[in-house]
Each structure stands twice: as C-alpha cells, then as structure tokens.
Amino acid sequence: MRVAMIGAGYVGLVSGACFAEFGVDVCVVDTEVSKVEALRAGRIPIYEPGLDRLVEENARDGRLSFTTNLDEAINGADAVFLAVGTPSRRGDGHADLSYVFAAAEQVARAAKGPLVLVTKSTVPVGTGRKIKEILRKTRPDLEIEVASNPEFLREGNAIGDFMRPDRVVIGAESDRAFQVLRRLYRPLYLIETPIVQTGLETAELIKYAANAFLAVKITFINQMADLCEKAGADVHDVARGMGLDGRIGRKFLHAGPGYGGSCFPKDTLALARTAQELGAPVTIVEQTIAANDARKEAMAERVIAALGGSAAGKTVAVLGLTFKPETDDMRDAPSLVVVPRLVEAGATIRTYDPQPSHARQMMPAGVQFAETALDAVESADAVVLLTEWNEFRALSPQKLKSAMRGDVVLDLRNAWDPAAFREAGFTYQSIGRQ
Predict the structure, then answer these.
(1) Any catalytic annotation for residue 228?
(2) Does one domain contain both 66 and 215?
(3) Can you give the CATH number for the domain in which 89 is found?
(4) Among 41, 59, 71, 412, which residue is least crowded by beta carbons within 10 Å?
C-alpha cells in the first residue's frame, strides 16, 4: 500500500515512520523546505526516543520519503492523511482549522483519481463534515472519501503507542474507507488490537473526550494533594488506594505542578468552546482548565514562600523545563509560568534540562543554562524540580547539599525520597506529602 502524510510535524513524522515500519510505502509532504531537506539528510527536527532510528532505517530501505511536492506525494496513494497543526485560535480558544481546510482543498485540486482523505490531526467534532463540503465544492467530479483516524500518541512513548496501541479508532461513512484503513492497520489485527469503527463525528469526539478525561483526572489528584497537605495525609497512598479500583485505574494519578504539552491544554479548551456553541457545556472541563492555570501560578508562589517570602537576590536552580520527560516540547509547560514569575520576583535562575533546544528560545532574558544538574545547583539557595527526567531521580542528596549554598528543595514531581533529603539537611517540600 501507499499513503501520503501531509505534515512533517510530530504526529505526521511519527505516524509516517511507523506506517513505513509496517511495510507501507509512505511519502511525507511538508511546505517547509528546510525541514524536508533536513529529514532527507537524516536530521530529525524533534526529540522522540527511537524516532531517528526508525526514520533512518525506513528511508534507507525506500519505504519512507520526504517532499515538498503535493502532487508527487499523493500520486497513487491509497490514503492521504492530514497531520497538520490545529493550534488554539487566538482570542476564543477554538482549534484553528485553517491549515486542515487549506490542505484538504489542495489535495482535492491535486487528486488525479478517487482516494480516501483521513484526518489524523486532532479536530473538533463536525470537522469531517466540513471537509466533505470543501471537497464537493472543489472537485464535484471526483469521489474522495473522508475518514477520521485520531492519534493517541504520548510524547516520549509515541512509537510504542503507535505500534502497540490500546485501540485504533476509525470513523467513516463508506465501506471503502473502512477497508483501506483496516488494511493499513492489518499488523495490529495480528496482535488483537481493538479496532473501534464509528461515524465521523463519534471518532472526532472520542479523541477530545479521552484527553479531557485525563486532564480532569490529573487536576483531581492535584486538588487531592492540596487537601492532603491540609489534612496530614499522603497523596501517594491516596492515589494508590484509588488506582487499585479497576473502575478508576492507576494512570494519571500523579500529583504535580499541572499538565501541559501539545494536547491537553488546547484540546480541553477546544472541547469546552465547541460544547458551549452546541448548547451542551462541559462545565467540569471548564473548571479543569481554570484550576490547571491557577495551579501553575500557585507553584511559583510556593517557591517564593519557601524562600522566606521573597526571592529577591536569591539563586534558584530549576531542574527540568520541558512539560514532561523524554521530549523537548515546551508547549504550556509549567516552567513557562514558574520561571518568569521567579525572575519577576528578583531571583537569579540557573536551569538544566537534558533537551533544552526549545527551552533556550522561550525562557526570559537572563536565565542561565547549565551543562549538568550539579552545575545548575552550584551555590544555589534553592532547588526546584519541575520535570522528572530519570537522571534527576538518581541525584545524591549529599552531593546536592555540598554544591549548594542554601538548603531549600522543592520537589514538585514527588520524584525524591523525603527522608533521604531531610537526613542530608535539606528543608524539603513536595506535593501532597508531609
């Protein structure tokens, strides 16, 4: 089979490389010339564990190619995937679908024969219906089927999520579209992956509903952590006691400084706006958005309070800037709220992150980037753990203490052992634990 993937961003590149690994002939098309040239040269524009190897091997074997020529990409394709960006629209929070609609129209104009056009991008319910209207107006002479195949890729584990997913969701209205997508995902049938076949609107809503539910779950345990601190309870034990209930599950019950990333912030906002427009507001999601925004601000204030109520003249080492480990993604990361607030309060910030490429461009002026974690904490008055990269878990409390000037540690990911840090002489704080 042959597919075209429009968009060489995170979703398009990972999905294209994984389809190629399945044995499919994949052509990834992007309008950004420098990105395509870099990919052809083997340079990956994002950090995702294992992606560089997957791209290199499949490109070498001829199953994966890159181009800026749309006609070249879709010529002879059984399916064309739309994997372009859908960022939050300025002013109202709706998903910006201009890239999706423009790409759909371009595909229609370039198509030489019948094909299946699949939305891989995360789009609000009703988008597929609008794409069908665009196709009809642009090419009334051509039969182009529309399908929805939302992605459920976690940054840092995207390849595993694609190759061994919990489920594959296919939304369509014709047997032909279902058949094409079932053939593409045939390797997953062999490992008995559940395939959920639905209509267009249902598939689109599944993606938003899933992400919104996980965001609510994170926010719930964060608020339980605040309650634990007031009540003298331990949020780890509360989460474990909850998670062992099969109806709840253990995942996404880790208290921290608030969710971020490319999906949860924009998807919860888009779902809330769509629901309001349709007259069925999801108030629990609206409250989750507000609570998560407030939590990031509260984390900054917690650091200032731990410094005695003033950060002026203090040196604070911030470990981890990306929104989660094993990615270089900075979108809506808690650090984008916490660090600027500390700078505003007069602190000198020295940071370290294993993947700082995007962080360097987004941190306030004057923030220092260290080469190692120990370099970052040298002579610091306080250490703030914002992202739980594995290398931070192994840091010795004694080595940190000997390198620092002060004794304040704020573990905002509950990654460290409170007893070990207190024995080393630290004033240690974490989330939802005594």
Answers:
(1) no
(2) no
(3) 3.40.50.720
(4) 41
